Amino acid sequence: MDFDLLRATRILERTPASLRALLSGVGDGWTRPNEGPDTFSAFDVIGHLIDGEETDWIPRAKIILAGGDDPRFQPYDRFRHRERNKGRSLESLLEEFERLRGQSLATLRSFELDEARLDLPGNHPRLGRVSLRQLLSAWVVHDLGHVAQISRVMAKQYTDAVGPWVQFLPVLTDHPVPRS
Amino acid sequence: MDFDLLRATRILERTPASLRALLSGVGDGWTRPNEGPDTFSAFDVIGHLIDGEETDWIPRAKIILAGGDDPRFQPYDRFRHRERNKGRSLESLLEEFERLRGQSLATLRSFELDEARLDLPGNHPRLGRVSLRQLLSAWVVHDLGHVAQISRVMAKQYTDAVGPWVQFLPVLTDHPVPRS
User: Fold this and answer.
1) Of A38, B51, B74, B125, whose CB has the highest number of CB atoms within 10 Å?
2) Smallest CA–CA separation between A105 and chain B, in Å?
3) A28: chain B residues, CB-CB within 8 Å
4) At residue B180, does pLDDT exceed 70?
5) 3-state helix, strand, coil in chain B (%, to 5)
6) What is the mean pLDDT of residues A140-164?
7) What CA–CA distance (Å, rounded) separates A120 from A122?
8) Which of B135, B147, B172, B177 to mutate to test the interface with A (most CBs of A within 10 A)?
9) B42–chain A nearest CA distance, Å
10) Which pTM does this prediction carry?
11) DSSP character for B20?
């Protein structure tokens, strides 16, 4: 499917409510465990998504739209949230993410993007030349990937509890080396 | 984590709202494609979850609780939904699933399960002896696995659109042979 701003926005604007529906009130037994060292719990993922709003997607879109000789992105810190959110509750992170995402989408609308501007280039520190259209597509996929990750990490809390059913439940075994 | 009825119910009771938040109104471009032959689209998954309410989880729990010499489950038809839901809208399936899940949880509560009854056995056509506790754990994991699957299948609609970002978005590449 080709990128389409309206269709992409339909996913981006739903993510805070999807995460709230999945996570609010389920309890720390589901939301605090991760899949091992340097992997994310559901709690971590919300922090990581907040980092994305503050340091990744819209800031990078602004670098692209500002143009210039070298529209180079800042590297992204995947573990910024660890220090930032010590002592926070999941509920407060869900609220913060919802507020920040609302601001991000208001900013996105204010860009009044057309097809030509969607083709403008940025310079990614590791990927090289990318377009604004690719950045916004990656934002959508990033959201959905982390919803899938949260569901998987929660499911794995019952890996032993399901007994012999483990062989019919691929979500428990498809990621022997988890990637976030 | 050990199975706990209250903790498990917190996931089971949230799934209809999670799916509604993810899917309602996003459009067929996101919800109708699948990952290839004999794999599920988001639309198919909702039908499959409805099949689970009608033919799998609670019906099998009832077989276990009825006891008898051979508490044998009926085989589960993973493609029952294909014929059943032809011509249906996603919205009507989301509503139906929400209603059926509410009934299932009311039935589950009516069982007034204690630790001893959670250990009662059933006879699975392929897995052999399983306990009610394992059945209910598998129900929770099955929900979460299909939320992960829906997110993944939707994300894959933008596999080409993200361009070079594909290497940083494992949800696009972690399932070369998709399993439902």
Assistant:
1) B51
2) 16
3) none
4) no
5) 60, 5, 35
6) 98
7) 7
8) B147
9) 13
10) 0.97
11) H
